[in-house]
Amino acid sequence: PIAHFNGAFVPLDEIRISPLDRGFIFGDGVYEVVPVYNGEPLHGREHFERLQRSCDEIRLKNPHTVDEWMALTRKLLESHPGNQSVYVHVTRGVPSKRDHVIPTGLKPTVFMMCYPLASPSKEQIENGVACTTAEDFRWTKCHIKSISLLGNVLARQSSVDAGAVETIMFRNGFLTEASASNAFVVKGGTVLAAPQDNMILLGITYQLLEKLAKDGTLKLEVRPVSEAEVRGADEIWLSSSTKEVLAVTSLDGKPVGTGKPGPVFKRMHALYQEYKG
Ligand code: PDD
Q1: Closest ligand 1 atom to the C-alpha of 242?
Q2: Which member of 75, 141, 145, 187 is catalytic?
Q3: CATH no. for residue 152?
Q4: Which residue, of 86, 116, 146, is where some domain finishes?
């Protein structure tokens, strides 16, 4: 498959990265994943605006404007029809030696690739998925979409080891998010979402669910959600660009609510499907 590397469109397996690249040495970079339906990026601009905020947070000069990123995305999609995930990766570049201090004048490394969008299966939509829980042991700048994903990787693996798909995390007794998605809780018909602070990545999908709830007159509250509220929830959902919105029907081996995707989930799922067209 064709990928993008530092200004050129080239076969993915021909791309070579220096071992001194700060992305390789320090995990010093940021990324985005943009879902594409039938060749059309969903919320592409919002993803690239978030990439800009991630760059600003790590003091990396974004090599492209939102318009340029969109143009690169469309060019890449010319050879990748249908439903895709566009992966976008920017590192601080390749210095001449390993040194933590941020060098001046480095040219960022830019990498983009596509792979088929792995949307939830019919079975997952109808029956929901299993999750486990864990203490959120990541750093406190989770609002940056950093390529340093070791915390997320270890958290995610613990659920997979237990036969589940995602790990829902708590920090000091409160819900943050899941290892590669945001998490929502429904109690008494109200959707609860964790605060939009530095402890979570504010998902583009999270923000879409907020908008869909508002337009669809579902009650959604953004506020700290306790671990007890999660464990006693009527419904739990995950959201991300690839998962869309997905019901969690088992948590740590115990059924969530009735153990089936709930009515509020079904309404939100329908709103989402209608929205994406
Ligand atoms: N992950 N929280 C975390 C930790 C994430 O990694 C993601 C997305 C989200 C949801 O963000 P969005 O709705 O903008 O996709 C929340 C992507 C899909 C990934 O790393 O593959």
Answers
A1: 18
A2: 145
A3: 3.20.10.10
A4: 116
